[in-house]
Amino acid sequence: MNFTKLVPSIFYKDLADAKKLVAHCLQCTITREDLTISQPYCVLEKEGIGLMAFQDEKLAKDQHPEPRLVTNSIDEVSTRISGFFPELLHPKLDKVTLRHWGAKEFAFMDMQLGIRFQQW
Length: 120
Fold this sequence. Notes:
Shape: globular
Largest sheet: 4 strands, mixed
Distance between the termini: 28 Å
Number of domains: 1
Strand content: 25-35%
Helix content: 10-25%
Structural class: alpha/beta
Order of helices and strands: EHEEEHEHEEE
């Protein structure tokens, strides 16, 4: 078997929230979207990673994923996000912190999705 990418599905009450967090904050590109169907969606990608965001209020109510993005430049990522999007910083992990398992981490979140950034 050969896999080329893992693309999680995230459910939002409003796709505008996904676009703010993923497209604007993380500078991902919207590569596909259809806002006219019963379950509107958009595909957001950057540098080989991606996610599908769906607008579905019922599923958004039940699911709150928290993926990790591994980076070699966590301080740069933290500086950019805290400078441009301070309202998205996770209240319990709002600055780069050395965790007891040896990784440096910080996190941000919106009403639906939390993302942890990690550097080993």
